[in-house]
Specification:
Length: 83
């Protein structure tokens, strides 16, 4: 390693900028965060990805197309409710 590095032209932040994503700091209730982390551990997905999906669903901006795979669980749930 060099003994001395020149950081005069350096900038803070990620080396590779992310496109389409923005880092934010926000406060989430402990119980909500715990639930997302628990569900993420159970499903093998990241909790931040799950939170993003929940927000996207709430806003009605789902990226998944409506197809048979998406509709089957919804229809089963509705049919069970109606008896």
């Amino acid at each position: 390693m060099k003994r001395e590095y020149d950081f005069r032209g350096a900038r803070r932040g990620a080396v590779i900028p992310q496109k389409g994503k923005t880092r934010v700091t926000m406060y989430i209730d402990d119980d909500i965060l715990l639930e997302f982390r628990t569900r993420a551990d159970d499903s093998g997905r990241g909790y931040q990805t799950m939170i993003n999906g929940a927000l996207r669903k709430y806003l009605g901006k789902s990226r998944r197309p409506v197809d048979a795979r998406t509709l089957r669980p919804i229809l089963r749930e509705e049919l069970e409710r109606t008896g």
